[in-house]
């Protein structure tokens, strides 16, 4: 079996892109865990350390999914469209913690996370139409964002 190093390199880059987006956002909001611990939270809110476990896994799954779609050929119209939605959701994902934590605009962050969720659902559907596995790889992200949206809502209401 011959291993194609070009594909491994593309896979690694595809995984690194969302991980780096998350890391940069995390760096910008490095005091967020203290801010999170100071918030009044609903009973179902996870401890802060859970986010540091969940997000890298979700970013890796996103990266693998995007690679699976990309390998169908970024010159194809449906692949370009899917990857465009993927890029937009990554930008929104990057912006959310800055708005939620650094700016403390939890109501605005709630609107943003709803828009993010819509883009992620559209991305997931587009990925699924190109590569079913890629679509399935996005489902944990969708589920987590639904939970995060509910959590954002309650922390906004409880901390007005």
Write a compact overview of the structure shown.
The protein is an all-alpha fold. It is 82% helix and 0% strand.
Features:
82% helix, 160 residues, mainly alpha
How many strands appear in the DSSP assignment?
0
Query: In percent, how much strand structure appears in the residues?
Result: under 5%
Give, in order, the helices and strands: HHHHHH
Task: List low-pLDDT spans.
Answer: none
Q: Tell me the radius of gyration.
A: 17 Å
Q: How many structural domains can be distinguished in the coordinates?
A: 1
Q: Give the oligomeric state.
A: single chain
Total helical segments: 6
Characterize the biggest β-sheet: none
Measured distance between first and last alpha carbons: 60 Å
